[in-house]
Amino acid sequence: MRIGFVGLGKMGGGMVERLLQGGHKIVGLDPNKDALEESRKKGATPASSLEELINKLSPPRAVWIMVPSGRITENTIQSLSPLMDGDDILIDGGNSFYKDSMRRGQALHAKGISFLDAGTSGGVWGLEIGYCLMIGGEEGAFKQIEPVFKTLAPENGYAHVGPSGAGHFVKMVHNGIEYGLLQSYAEGFELLSSKRAFNLNLQKISRLWNQGSVIRSWLLELADRAFQKDPELRSVRGYVEDSGEGRWTVAEAIEQNVPAPVITLSLLERLHSRQDESFGAKVIAALRDEFGGHGFKKK
Question: Burial, 92: exposed, middle or buried (Cβ in 10 Å; 0-12, 13-18, 19+)?
Fold first, then answer.
């Protein structure tokens, strides 16, 4: 297939390369000239504007946007939609909020443009092993673009999961689960590391646990790699960002009256990681000294 691709960063660039390897024709656009040139070298046709990208595609067109969620995605869709015709298809593969995708799907449908929200997982490894794709939107549009999904994904790694918004909803919950898994591994390895008397080799243990253990996973394989590079993670600062999907998952759980304590606490732990020193911990230390004479460590 011939498809336009807006956004050639870490994820988008890898996806374009995988599509080119699969025989697809790509017209690519990115404000970063280095990223655009890198894709050109790999076989993509560069475009310098959305107008040029659209003009280099033949109707019915398909355009995949892979840009940061929020305002940038909104602006890109608002700029693209007047350039597109009925029967064209627009795919958002970023981490957009599912309610925004529902709204965008309805607005584009009114113009005759099909919209697919494609929750995408796989990170920088997707180029090599494929991307897991959770796709919402009209089934007819999904069928038209299916050759693209099939190339991007590993075997059985893509599915049409429901109407507009469903793809990004499933991806949102997926990321919420990821928060909980990461936090569980983090707490376990911290406990192992704290037992200094045993001088435990964390890389050896992470590899061991992947051999038939009930907690084996790809994340443990990545832990093995990380501990090989830096056994005590001395070069890593314990500051953990969040993409926003964990927050959306927690908010949705509250809205739906679904208890999600593990995901919620894992999100709060990420916030905790960003504090150089917790004022709340100071309050606890001071109160323990006041009521029990426990003392506290002074600066």
Answer: buried
Angle at 120 (CA atoms; ends 125, 173), nearest 5 degrees: 115
Respond yes or no: is residue 171 known to be catalytic.
yes
Q: How many residues in the chain?
A: 299
Which residue from 141, 137, 100, 97 is spatially nearest to 117, judged by alpha carbons? 137
The angle subtended at Cα 62 by Cα 57 and Cα 65, nearest 5°, is 110
| 70's tokens | 């929020």
> In the numeric block, which tokens belong to residue 186?
């983090």
Bridging pattern class, strands 62-65 and 2-6 = parallel
Backbone angles phi, psi at 199, to 5 degrees: 50, 55
Query: Is 298 an annotated catalytic residue?
Result: no
Residue range 127-153: average pLDDT?
97
Instruction: Tell me whether residue 31 is exposed, middle or buried, using C-beta atoms within 10 angstroms of its C-beta: 0 to 12, 13 to 18, 19 or more.
Output: exposed
pTM: 0.93
- What are the tens digits of pLDDT across the range 242-276? 889 999 999 999 999 999 999 999 999 999 888 88
Name the residue among 57, 68, 60 with its Cα closest to residue 93: 68
Q: How many CB atoms lie within 10 A of CB 239?
A: 10
Strand 132-137 with 114-121, pairing: antiparallel
Q: Which of 17, 171, 245, 252 is catalytic?
A: 171
Q: Which among 191, 182, 186 has a CA at the least distance from the CA of 218?
A: 182
Exactly one of 178, 190, 204, 241 is catalytic; which is it? 178
Interatomic CA distance for residues 254 and 106, integer angstroms? 26
